[in-house]
Amino acid sequence: MRVSWALKKVEIPMDIVVLMVAGLAMLIAGLLLFPVYAGKLPYYENGLYGLLIFIFALQIVVLGKTPFGDISERTLPLLIFGILIACVGIVTCYVPDILKNIPRIILFLCFGPGGLFLLLRMFMSKSYFKLWKNEGGILLKLAFNCAAVYSFSIFISVLLVKGDIVSGSATAILLLLYGMLLLSLCFVLYRVYEVYPESIREIGGKIKLSNERACMLTVGVLTVLLGILLIPIKLGMLPFSGSAQLGLLVVIISLKMMAFGNTPLGAFARTWSLVSLGLIFASMGIISCIVPEIMLPCLTLIIALLYIVGGTIPISRKLLSLRKREANRPRLPAILTKLTVTQTTISTLSIVFGTSMLIRNLIPGPLLGIILTANGVLLLYLLSLLLKIDKINAE
């Protein structure tokens, strides 16, 4: 029986998923800048900058891809560097103007020198343009697409330093074209991976982390940082962009949906319908990062319900399994008991956090920050348990 397109399973490599979200961010930013420069929409520049920095950081932590090229092995310094960059992106999104020009400098280095280095390397190395040109076909398309993306990256870096050299409409058009080029590169890369599956790269190194586990590490750090920031924010000591916070969270959810099939409601088979839903989620999150308040009520409701339902489902399953458990069933190993307790605690905190989003002042602000921090710490502890279990299974 023929499977419909929506239910057809699909395997999209993590690097293409991240690139898709980056392209979508640029495309949407370009579209939104037309009404922004016409004075019809507000614009939160730090939201866009923070989102882009976080995407660069995710590439470093998860894929070992830096703005200056790929790293063959995942090392502790690389992980720490990537997480620090992610923290800069998170703070840039959440707390307006606290980092002054640091986000702009980081993005300039990523787009400008990074784009120039990749462009020169592509033409000067025998492993890139010369090889792709000789092979022809889809690889030749890849060469021209990469050259266009790297060249546009340099133009973007110039705008970061000297934004007034072109009009607002011209800036919007440049971002729009850059987003289209990135999305075009996604389609070309997807085709390249189909024709040359051996070219799909997995980062090695002494630190053994799958892409999914590396993404979990980043989310855990994000949650801890958000919880810590919420304490002074709720005490009125720092400004806060709630729409950018929810926007970044939704973008992360969409990335996990498209790359791993993981959702707050559980794991699902990766199908084109799930990928499409992930792209819709990503679009909503990107808009929320760029335009303050416009998506806030909608995203608040969606995230709250996802947290509540996503926390309720695993707890319900565990309660049902306890009822069915036989009295003489052997005790679980200690590590699995710890895993169950940790997962249950995280689910409970998710329900509490989701409920607090729907009912104002249910939990005092500083206490909410402490709850989120605890949730992030538990996520990192859960990651350590999963890594131990992976090691045991490998042995």
Distance between the termini: 40 Å
Given as residue ranges, the uncertain stretches (5+ residues, pLDDT < 50) are none
- The chain-level mean pLDDT equals 87
Strands, total number = 4
Radius of gyration: 22 Å
Contiguous helical run count: 13
Tell me the strand percentage band: under 5%
Biggest β-sheet description? 2 strands, antiparallel
Percent range for helical residues?
A: over 70%
Widest β-sheet, arrangement of strands: 1-2
Task: Count structural domains.
Answer: 2
Q: What would the principal axes of the Cα set say about the shape?
A: globular
- Run of helices and strands: HHEEHHHHHHHEEHHHH
Query: Structural class from helices and strands?
Result: mainly alpha
What features would you describe in this structure?
The protein has helices spanning 14-37, 45-63, 76-94, 102-124, 129-135, 138-161, 168-195, 211-234, 242-260, 272-290, 296-324, 334-358, 365-394; strands at 65-66, 69-70, 262-263, 266-267. The strands form two sheets. It has a two-stranded antiparallel ribbon. Strands 3-4 form a two-stranded antiparallel ribbon. The chain starts with 13 loop residues before the first helix and ends with a helix. It has 13 helices and four strands. With 395 residues, it is an all-alpha fold. A hairpin with a 2-residue loop joins β3 (262-263) and β4. The protein folds into two domains: 11-209 and 241-294, no CATH class; 299-394. The longest helix is centred in the last third of the chain and has 30 residues, at 365-394.
